[in-house]
Structure formats: structure tokens, C-alpha cells
Amino acid sequence: METRRLARTAVMLGFILAVVGLMAWSIIAKLTITPQATAEDLRALPLWLIPFHYLWDYAQHGWLCLGFAFIVSGLFQEFIPPDVMIRYMGSGDWRAYVFATVLAPVFCVCSCTMVPIFAGLVYAGSGIGPALTFLLVAPANNLLADIITVQVMGWPIALADMVAGAVSAIAIGYLVSKTRHGREFEERFKGRKQTSASIDLVEEPLDDRLWNALKFGGFLAKQIIPSFVLGLVLVSYFQAYFPEDLVRTWLTGPTGVVVAALLGGPLYTPTLIEVVLGKALMDLGMTPAATVAWLMGQPYDIPNSLSASKVVGWRIVITYGVLAFVSAVLSGLIYGAVTGGF
Amino acid sequence: MTLKLEVIGVEPACKRCKEAKENALKAVEKLRAEGVKVEVVKLDVMAKETMDRFGVVRTPAVALNGVVKIMGKVPDPGVIERMIRKEL
Prior knowledge:
The structure holds 2 protein chains of 2 kinds. Chain A contains 17 helices and 1 strand. Chain A is mainly α. By secondary structure, chain B is α+β, with helices and mostly antiparallel strands. Chain B has a 4-stranded mixed sheet with strand order 2-1-3-4, covered by helices on one side. Strand 1 of chain A pairs parallel with strand 4 (67-71) of chain B.
């Protein structure tokens, strides 16, 4: 029994280390992980072949990055003690904001865990500010999205996106908690006693935990890959046939930042597709500054807003939606001004 | 003595919450065959009563006699079975 457990642990650790090692090597060797096809390449192909060519192009480069992202997400999910975040985020002062920002990205790769935690924080009376910060950071900066953004967009834009996402989520959470609606809403839950469950988590042996981690990675892959593939098919046609003039007119300069921020949100695409679509737009001429604004549009997409509105009501959702739009525009403008990337 | 096993998830149940409940039922069925009395309840994490009792939890979660034993993952039937046996 003991030897079997040991062998299982060794095999799984070996596999995980191999993927992590390959990923590190591909970064050091600067291998390209994104599709390389240009609009001209794609247009030269027959119509039916375009998505296959694009997918093959992506699969050749992207599998390692995706595999790595899924495995790391699984490891985080399994090995970060779940009660940590809950304990610290409930504190209600500035530490709650910090924990929301730092922990949400590694905690919530799956959106169905996110809204319940958000609602829980609100109802438990820990303040609408940190809860909103958490809600906004989780989809924008989740681990999976961050890894893919770095690989597809490169460090400068990815880093700008992460920092801007975190800063604006904190600012928005704080500002909303100071508005009249926010204060009224908080009042309703103030008097409630803070309940926290008695927690005594079951411990499992290491090999079972590693297996859990890999299983969760597989679960994520199953959830995400079908829509990702569909998205890539659409993006391939988009890249081949979307008129470049339109992109050059509307998605460059300061106007481009505003337009990109407008499109990035309501036009709901799963995060990973948003990144690839952003890359296609960039290849067609969207400026880096507009790209940052585009990527920042995630927190106010429609499904996310809908589920949040059930908890906090429309007025607060609209307030933070407007603030998120403003911060997307500001981030794009600042990025453009600092790097000259208009 | 009847033990109370509560599976906490979102409503409508997401895939992982469903799996957690199925695994819990499997474990309980096995124990019932041995004469252990376990009651299984499904709770909605967004319901007010659930939040009043458990505060903020990560779903899916499993509680035994009011103590949260598993949070944020789908437990295997074996894990639940061992967990219940410990309480006997």
C-alpha cells in the first residue's frame, strides 16, 4: 500500500514538474506560443480550411501554455487552504481589500464559485467594498487568464492589464461603498451577527491530493476547451476578413481606447477568447493602449453583471459598470501616454 | 443516533456540486447497508439560512453534523465514507 502511494506520488510529481519545466524552457528559449498566421496567409486558403489551419496553428504552439495553466490552477485549487481567504476577507478593513485582490485570482478560476463567495461576503456584513473588489478582480486577473495573456500579448500589456485590473477593482470597490446606494445597502446587513462555520477539514494523503489537483485541471479543460475552440474558429474568420481600415480608424489613438473599452465589456466572450480576439485585432492594427482598455472590459460583461445584480441590485451594478468603464479608458490612456503606444 | 450530512452547493446545481452530492449519496448508501443512519441534505449556498449557519464557504462543501469538513472540492465517496466512520 505504502509503495503504491509513493509510486503514484512520484509519477504525478514527475508529470507536473515536466510540464512546468517545459514551460520554463519555452519562456527562456523565447519560443512562440501564439498562432503565427497573418491575415494574408489565411485569406489565401479556401474558406472551409481557414478554421482548421488556425486551430492547428494554435494547437502547435498553445498546448503547452494551456496545459501548464490548467495544471497550475488545479494545484492552487487543491493546495491553498480554503478557509484562509474567507477568514481574512471578512475583516472589513483595508486588509480585506488586499486579500481580495491577491487571493481572488488564484482562488476562482471557475465562475460558479465566485458569485456565492461574493454573496456570502455581502450577507455576512463584511462590507460591499471588499466584496465588489473580489468580484471584479476574480474574472479579470484569474490565473488561467493571466498565463494566457502573458503568452499571447507579451509581458508589457499583460502586466499593465493585471496592475490596472487590481488597482481599479480596489478603487471601484471603495468608491461604490461610499456612494449613497452602497451605504444604504451596507446598512441593511450591518446589524447581522458574523457567522463563520466551524471548520475541521478532512486531511487526505499527498498522492490523493495531487490526483485531485490534476482532476480539477482536467475539469477546467473540459469546461473551457470546447468554447475556446469555437471562439478560435470565429476569430480565424475574423482575422482573415475583418476590414483592416475599420480597425485602423476606430481602434487607434485616444478614440481607439474609448471604443475598445466600450466593445470589451458588453461584447461578452469568455476571457480566453477575449485575449485571442484582442490579439487578432492587434494584428489588424489595434494599438497597445486600446488593447489594454479592451482587456479591462471583462468585469462588466453581461452574465457577470446579471448574477451580481441578483445579489446587490441593479443600481449598484450600474454604478460599478460605469466606474469600470471609466477605469478601462483611463488605464488605456495612461498606458498609451507612458509607452507611446497610441 | 442519526448523523446529518449536508452538501452545500449553488442552485441550480453546477456540475461539481452535483458530483459532490452523488458521491455523498454513494458513500451513504454503502454505510446504510451496514446499519449506519445518515441523513443527506442538499443546501443552497445562496440561501439566507445557509449563510446564517455557515457564513462564507467555497462550493461545493460538505458538512457533517454542522461542521464543514470539505470545501471547494469534489470529495470521492471513499473520503466521505472515512469521514463518517470517524464520527461513529
